Amino acid sequence: MPEAGGRERPKPAWRHLRRHRRATLGAALLLLVVASAAGAGALAPRDPLAQEVLARLEPPGWSDGEGWTAWLGTDHLGRDILSRLIYGGRVSLLISLVSVAGSLGLGFVLGLAAGFYGGPTEALIMRLTDLQLAFPFILLALAIVALLGPSLPNIVVVFTVTSWPIYARVVRASVLSVAGLDFVAAARALGRRETGVLLRHIAPNTVAPLLVIAFFEIARMIITEAALGFLGLGVQPPTATWGNMLADGRDYIRDAWWLSAFPGLAIMVTAAGVNLLGDGLRDWLDPREAG
């Protein structure tokens, strides 16, 4: 129903997602991965670290005749692939979500400061972003992880401190465009303090593009974490991650394809789900798609 003045109210997010089939598919895929990771203790058929050497490299669907069926097969140490896949999702999601939240928060604050205060503050922050963006992300992450050592906290720190520039640049640009609008000038004319103008009138108008970027960054973090794990610089064994599962399977790719196929499929499905949902969110937040 149109509002006063002839403007139409934006459609609720759930109605847009229902109309946007790709976003609905992405939400379903992501919900499946998140639910399985959250309920890993109840869903995993076995302990992901339990070894059964006599059952090593068994194909998908193999059963020991005593109640254990390895639906996705076993690895080179006889560990259940399905159980490790479910628990590995916890690690990938934890790293990606915490890293994106940290880098978004850091970039948001620095971008607001650069765009609003300008002068030396803006020059210093923007030169830091230019310096960091000059290095390829994966090479910078590899160098820092190699220096600090591969562990879950270190990987989160590395992803956080290497990913904030994209948020900072977007927020700065948004602040510069919003700061000159009439409602900001009116707030200043009414005597509102500069901090209040920034936090109440400018900052909320920079959030929408950050949410879209964050979704795509989650997918990138999942893939990068898997790449580090594949190279031996991710979370270390015996903890199950999709990256080190891929690394375990590379020596058996000809004889035991399932060791690499299922972790790779999990990474692909999760990244695709996040990207599809991000597409839908971008369209919903785009004023040109309103109505």
Beta-strand residue percentage: under 5%
Question: What's the alpha carbon Rg, rounded to whole Å?
Answer: 23 Å
Q: How far is the first residue's CA from the last residue's CA?
A: 10 Å
Indicate the percent of residues in helices. 55-70%
Q: What structural class results from the helix and strand content?
A: mainly alpha
Q: How is the quaternary structure best described?
A: single chain
CATH H level, superfamily name:
MetI-like
What's the SSE pattern? HHHEEHHHHHHHHH
Largest sheet: 2 strands, antiparallel
Mean pLDDT: 86
Uncertain residue segments:
1-8
Count of structural domains: 1
CATH topology: MetI-like fold
Strand order of the largest sheet: 1-2
- Number of DSSP strand runs: 2
What is the tally of helical segments? 12
In short:
By secondary structure, the chain is mainly α. The chain has helices spanning 13-19, 21-38, 40-43, 81-117, 119-133, 137-148, 152-178, 182-189, 194-202, 207-230, 242-249, 258-285, and strands at residues 62-63, 69-70. It is elongated.
Structural description of this entry:
The protein has 291 residues and is mostly helical. The chain has one domain: MetI-like (MetI-like fold, Orthogonal Bundle), CATH 1.10.3720. Helix content is 68%, strand content 1%. A two-stranded antiparallel sheet has the order 1-2. A hairpin with a 5-residue loop joins strand 1 (62-63) and strand 2 (69-70). The longest helix is centred in the middle third of the chain and has 37 residues, at 81-117.
